[in-house]
Amino acid sequence: MTGVSERKSRNRVDSGRFASHIAPSAQLPYNFCRFDAGGLAAAPAATFVRNLPLMSQLTILEYPDPRLRTKAQPVVVFDAALQALIDAMFETMYAAPGIGLAATQVNVHKQLLVLDVSEEKNRPLVLVNPRIVAQDGSQTYQEGCLSVPGIYADVDRADRITVEALDRNGQPQQIEAEGLLAVCIQHEMDHLVGKLFVDYLSPLKRDLVRRKLEKQRRSAAQA
Ligand code: QAP
Ligand code: CO
């Protein structure tokens, strides 16, 4: 066995992110698009324009897209555009569904990530310009990534971390994390320096992942 697993049911078509009744409008920032009322129930933060919920779904870059290798720059301005980006990232992450999303994955090269590892999906966390200031122990977790759909593999990381970051308003916060939350923060922070969980695998396993993704995309394209 290779240690790299694949969940066929998770296969996802690139352009299939948008249901047929949802028209993406490319002219607007962050791919804002309108959903019908059915989309509203699932919307954590819908904005209304002329009584229509204005939802945002961001396009997630997929491995081996070279833009995933871009190093993110610190956030210096906490303006309305940043708030809109954060909201859109949460909507994209919850819709996927996922537990973490870094700005790099939606082709915004700022040091920003969102996560929610809670069962009830009611503990949203925003980390801006995060720094790990202490770490301890080690754990192995089977990770996945929205940018590497359908692929899961074991990765070793620190078990406990202390992170200093800013929140969505630019206020400093310190987070003590362990277990899944610690894994998720480390995984998302890797994205901000252009690193992916598949980089921890051997070149042989990584090549296997790349070929599995190509195969998935081929079968999705002809479906
Ligand atoms: C990173 O990953 C992570 O392959 C967040 O088809 C993962 O949210 C941190 C997802 C595991 C800690 C442990 C992956 C959704 C979501 C897929 C995700 C897929 C659909 C991944
Ligand atoms: Co990821």
What do you see in this structure?
The model is unreliable at 6-45 (pLDDT under 50). The protein is an alpha+beta fold. A 5-stranded antiparallel β-sheet has the order 5-6-7-10-11. A 3-stranded antiparallel β-sheet has the order 1-9-8. It has a 3-stranded antiparallel β-sheet with strand order 2-4-3. 24% of the residues lie in helices and 26% in strands. The protein has helices at 37-40, 80-95, 179-192, 203-221, and strands spanning 4-6, 32-34, 47-49, 52-56, 100-102, 112-115, 125-136, 139-143, 151-157, 160-166, 172-178. Cobalt (II) ion is lined by residues 145-147, 187, 191.
The overall pLDDT average reads 83
Q: What compounds sit in this structure?
A: 2-phenylethyl (2E)-3-(3,4-dihydroxyphenyl)prop-2-enoate, cobalt (II) ion
Task: Trace the largest sheet across and list its strands.
Answer: 5-6-7-10-11
Shape: globular
Structural class: alpha+beta
| Separation of the first and last Cα atoms | 29 Å
What level of helicity do the residues show? 10-25%
- Weakly predicted, low-confidence segments: 6-45
Write the element-wise H/E pattern from the N-terminal end onward: EEHEEHEEEEEEEHH
- Counting H and I runs of at least 4 residues, what is the number of helices? 4
Radius of gyration: 18 Å
The count of DSSP E runs of length 2 or more, i.e. the number of strands, is: 11
Q: Characterize the main sheet.
A: 5 strands, antiparallel
Q: What percent strand?
A: 25-35%
